[in-house]
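tool_call: predict_structure(chain=1)
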Amino acid sequence: MFISPKSDVCMKELFRNETVLRYFISAVLAIPPENIRTIRLKNTFLWRRERKQKQGILDILAEMNDCTKINIEVQIKHYAHWDRRQIFYLSKLYTEELKAGSDYSHLKRCIAIGILDFNLTDRKEYHHVYRLRDEQGYEFSDVLEIHILELHKKLEACGEMEEWIRFFRADSEEELDMTGTNNPGILEAIREVKAMSLSRRLRMRYEAHLKQIRDEKAWKEYERAEGRTEGRAEGHTEGLAEGRTEVLHRIIRNMMDQKMSDQDMLRLSGCSEQELEEIKKRINNSRTE
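tool_result:
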């Protein structure tokens, strides 16, 4: 089985490799790879002040030697308000380490990199960079920066950025071999993808990831069907809630079978911590009966 480079499972494993991560960041930020002396991966759950506060969950969180924090996220499908969600995560990333009474000078520069398997804009550019500037284009601050890579756009050049996009687009080993790149980071990434495709553990995780996507699609089809047949009549909400719980139950049971962590289950299922605990408890109880 070929594991797609743009899948959540593959992406997380790929960026554990420091060579892959360094050369990818180098291409996106247009800085020489030798300028990135050290990179360390950090916990991908953002701190929250209160229990009721929404917790941010990032795909890949790296910190560079100059203390710049970088969040890399792959997004396969278009969510409503994706732009606001991106700003929410970046804002939490920026403020999470400022303790009460701390000086604002302790705040670190934060960069978000979104790899999108859909078109966010109707412009021809496939690499967008957003920063804080005024109407005349004068920069207010460089502390927040968002990079968007749109994988579906027609490539206009043959630079490092385009080579990375071609790599993420690959749907087979043959397409990986046809990239014809000399970039050490991409060559290392190709080796990693081929190794992952041979790994039984990662194949199981990838299959679980695909099943979760299918379950989400089934849930949406169910929701649409319910809406067509029952409209907004009383009891419709209860029916949808029961259907959502049933789908979540299947998704989480499958992920538990794959021995996934609670963090991964929360991120992939989209349920709340309370829902996860309740569903896990029901699943465990049913297994002991």
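agent: The longest strand covers residues 139-150. Proceeding to next step.
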